[in-house]
Amino acid sequence: MTSSHLPPNGSPLLDTPLHLAVALDGAGWHPAAWRESRARPDELTGARYWADLVRTAESGLLDLVTIEDALALQPTVPDGPDDRLDRVRGRLDAVLIASRVAPLTRHIGLIPTATTTHTEPFHVSKAIATLDHVSLGRAGLRAQVSRPVENAHFGRRELGEVSLADPGTPAARAFVAEHFGEAEDFLEVVRRLWDSWEDDAEIRDAATGRFIDRDKLHTVDFQGRWFSVRGPSIVPRPPQGQPPVAVLAHESLPYRLGARQADVVFVTPRDVEQARAIVAEIRAEQSAAGRERDTVHVFADLVVLLADTAEAAQERLARLDERAGAPIASDALVFAGTAAELADTLLAWQRAGLTGYRLRPAVLPDDLDAVVGRLVPELQRRGAFRTAYGEETLRSRLGLPHPANRYATPAG
Amino acid sequence: MTQPSRQPRKRIILGAYLGGVNHHTVWSAPEADSQIAFSSFRHLAQTVERGKFDFFFLAEGLAIRERLGRFFDQDVVGRPDTLPVLAALAGVTEHLGLIGTINATFNEPYELARQLSSLDHLSDGRAGWNVVTSFDAFTGQNFRRGGFLHRDDRYVRADEFLTVARQLWDSWPEDAIEADKESGRFLRPEHADAGRFAFSGKQFEIAGRFTTPRSPQGRPVVLQAGVSPHGRDFAVARADAIFSPFHRLDEAQEFYRDIQRRAARAGRPPGAVKVLPSASFVLGDTEAEAAERQREIARQQVSGRTAQILLEAVWNRDLSGYDPDGPLPDVEPDVEGPRIIQGRAVIHQDARQTAAEWRELAEAKGFSLRELAIHLFSRTEFVGTPEQVADRLDSFVQNEGSDGFILGSHLTPTGLDEFVDRVIPLLQERGAVRTEYTGTTLREHLGLPST
Questions:
Q1: Hey, is the C-beta of B440 within 8 angstroms of any chain A C-beta?
Q2: Strands across the sheet with B341-342, in order?
Q3: Percent of chain A topping pLDDT 70
Q4: CB of B143 less than 8 A from some CB of A
Q5: Alpha-carbon span A342 to B87, nearest angstrom
Q6: For residues A398 and A263, is the Cβ–Cβ distance under 8 A?
Q7: C-alpha to C-alpha distance for A387 and A380, rounded to whole angstroms
Q8: Cβ contact A100–B90 (<8 Å)
Q9: Which parts of B245-385 fold into alpha helices (H)?
Q10: How high is the pLDDT of residue A162?
């Protein structure tokens, strides 16, 4: 192992294991992905397609998969959708995809996306708790605020006409502030509901005829600006206690949400310096929120497109861009190169304080197969990635302790 | 057995449910297992799929029940969320329909329609929705809109909800996706705006694009529960099947025939609306043994304490001071005061009249408080040897009592094992249930027209 592969404190890599996630969305993150020869564009809403992808990711010992979703069709433009014919359109509820594949997998974490703006925190809390029960402790939640186009699908809000085409306008800024404020309350309620049953509330005490110890159930009594929720949940506390919560963040307000409420923040640096600045900002927010002792992961998102040589990868990218009619537009850096080069980048960026990566395969299944078949062995050769699954739950794999229940009174 | 000679023999539709939050589940039995663990759901679903059942059915609750401001602790408390469990079951079964009860009052059509359509995709056409409504302010406290829906508005909302849901399910033409890699057309040009919808009503004012392509069944199967005149009209106008509470053959026939008449008036073809009561059974090697087992189970289901609480739902008073082995309370129900039991469906419209009827019944039969509760709340409809139970189930359906049953048991999750092993073969022998699945979708299992 060379010094360039060591994290900043100089300790061996396996003491600070690299976490690897894969972000699954449609046919992949490149808009022309669905036209590739191995793509399965007519199966994108089929269970077999999703089961194949997640099982592939599990065969690569990845920490977790995320599954994208929104309460609107895929956008081409910020306020989309438009009437383009050449882009993937249509998708399924991500929580249900994750639930569908849960019994078919054993180890990999399953983090579906759920919208926080128009949904009920009570419903989302019990859905993720149930995914955790169904997967025996492998569930997580990626919380996402909605885009303006989703408002009309619910009709419950009068927010006026907002365009996100220019995020700098006062209206767009107000929209973002409103939605992220609500998301913070939303996650607070989801977490309280997960705690609303203590772990050992079900006692089945035949002698006294009591199924539960009702003193171990708690109302959450949340009153906020956007909603109030009484509780408790109808679902007993999930196996992980608190399934890990993730957010994708591109700027200060979302960084703050992540630092306050999340266990994993997905960020989109363009280089190691930017990664360092983002990590510093999130750590500062974490301290400000009194969470400096909590583990909050910061994973960099990268769109990845792999090939045997750098030239072949660039050619693939050029071919896909040409088919799409324009270079891929992405919030995250687009990496086109070899698995070894990607491994170099991941390990180099780790020095910025990143704790892991969420790789977005440009083409499915091709780039997922390459992550599993090329990148993972390369990282393993360098001693930078696990060679077997160890921990039982997603929390424990992420190094998160079993959380105390905020409502539990200490024994004794 | 009497059987209308001109009609072909009707096949019995069979659903199965996992007992949960009610007094029917005997959680204290030594062989009783988790009400939450997925292994319980998998066991039951795979068992009834082995028995070639039509579907698995899940009930719903959206608040923990309370009595005098404290959480219930006598019966099963807690249950998993409906749709994720059904989606997971889709992964461990191949044919079984998957029907979930979901409240139209505390959901939004865009979100729920896409979840149900997603379940239909993920199960290759096996999804169903039992639509229920509520006007319950206690449960409303768990949701954004809070408060409650006026009693009369709940069917307005449910009606609009179904209208929107259908519009959304129909918003993607079946052939909208071309996915032609060569031409680069993902959507067919004539369907460039697939998913476009707009609805304006009293409850919903929404428009936009639906996210989910047309599912294998087109529309998931819709069940409706609720037997008021309004509920019946709603069901015959909107539903593929009705979840009915009638078990006595004369009552059941009256309901069944009323539904057929209403359905015909609503322009539905014969057989388009199935009637499915919930039912339970107890088997024994002899009739006497089955009857003895039933008595034992009933006493386990309705303890003295449970009996008091079941009557409190009508009396709306704390009855814990009344001896369960003594006579019924000598006081009248409190119809003015706040409800002492919250989070349970209100069934009794006129508490005083119900109380008077129950007193009369208890006096005539010499029932104690607990015996009355057992009589009223612990009825097991089909008790006997496997041959007797098979015969009675078949006879009930052939004589227009229903189109089939949604079967439950007092024991989670193995309560239906015995039924599948001992009764199903007898029903198969007489041609009353299928021996192999012949269709792939729930709609096909139920003999419903495609959409």
A1: no
A2: B70-71, B66-67, B341-342
A3: 93
A4: yes
A5: 36
A6: yes
A7: 7
A8: yes
A9: 249-265, 287-301, 304-315, 351-365, 369-377
A10: 75
- Chain-centre distance for alpha carbon A371: 18
Put simply, whether B319 touches A (Cβ < 8 Å) is no
Chain A environment of B187 (Cβ under 8 Å): 85, 89
Cβ–Cβ below 8 Å for B77 and A92: no
Q: Which residue of A has its CA nearest to B92?
A: A103
d(CA A116, CA A93): 14
* CB-based contact A212 B146, cutoff 8 Å: no
User: Under an 8 A CB cutoff, do A217 and B77 touch?
Assistant: yes
- Separation CA A248–CA A282 (nearest Å): 12
pLDDT surpassing 80 at residue A83: no
B340, two tokens:
């002492």
Distance CA A83, CA A145 (A): 24
Nearest by Cα to A24 from A84, A129, A104, A109: A109
B167 and chain A in contact, CB less than 8 A: no
Residue A161 clears pLDDT 80, i.e. is over it: no
Show the low-confidence residues of chain B (pLDDT under 50): 1-6
DSSP letters spanning B429-450: HTTSS-SS---SSHHHHHTPPP
Residue A147 has pLDDT above 70, yes or no: yes
Residue in chain A nearest B186 by alpha carbon: A86
Distance separating alpha carbons of residues A144 and A286, to the nearest angstrom: 19
Tell me which residue in B38, B88, B209 faces A73 most closely, judged by beta carbons.
B209
Question: Contacts for B155-159 with beta carbons within 8 Å, 24 or more apart?
Answer: B155/B230, B155/B231, B155/B234, B156/B202, B156/B203, B157/B104, B157/B105, B157/B133, B157/B203, B158/B104, B158/B105, B158/B131, B158/B133, B158/B234, B159/B234, B159/B238
Strand locations in A13-93, DSSP E? 19-24, 64-67
Contacts of A41 in chain B (CB under 8 A): 177, 179, 181, 186
Residue B17, pLDDT score: 95
The whole-angstrom distance between A30's CA and the closest CA on chain B is 14
B383/B286 Cα distance (integer angstroms) = 10
Tokens of A105: 């997998």
Q: Looking at CA atoms only, how far is residue A88 from chain B in angstroms?
A: 6
**Nearest CB neighbour to A134, from listed B85, B124, B143:** B85
CB-based contact A85 B92, cutoff 8 Å: no
Give the residue from chain A lying closest to B103, CA to CA: A123
Tell me whether the omega of the peptide bond preceding residue B413 falls within 30 degrees of 0, making it cis. Answer: yes
- Within A338-411, strands assigned E span 356-361
Q: Strands A228-229 and A222-223, how do they pair?
A: antiparallel
Of A323, A366, A71, the closest CA to residue B185 belongs to A323
Rounded Cα distance, B231 and A410, in Å:
50
The C-alpha atoms of residue B326 and residue B320 are separated, in whole angstroms, by 12
Q: Taking 50 as the threshold, does the pLDDT of residue A274 lie above it?
A: yes
Query: Is there a contact between A229 and B70 if contact means CB atoms under 8 Å apart?
Result: no
Rounded to whole angstroms, the Cα distance separating B314 from B300 reads 22
Per-residue model confidence (pLDDT) at position A338 = 98
CB contact under 8 Å between B184 and A323, yes or no, is yes
Compute how many other C-beta atoms are within 10 angstroms of the C-beta atom of residue A280. 12
B20 φ/ψ angles, rounded to the nearest 5 degrees: -150, -115
pLDDT tens, B125-143? 999 999 998 888 899 999 9
CA distance B135 to chain A (A): 17
Identify the burial level of B96 via C-beta atoms within 10 angstroms of its C-beta, where 0-12 means exposed, 13-18 middle and 19 or more buried: buried
Q: E strands, A338-381, where?
A: 356-361
Asked if B142's CB is within 8 angstroms of A122's CB, the reply is yes
Q: Could you tell me where the DSSP H helices lie in A196-271?
A: 252-261
Residue A148 has pLDDT above 70, yes or no: yes
The alpha carbon of residue B72 is apart from the nearest alpha carbon of chain A, in Å, by 7
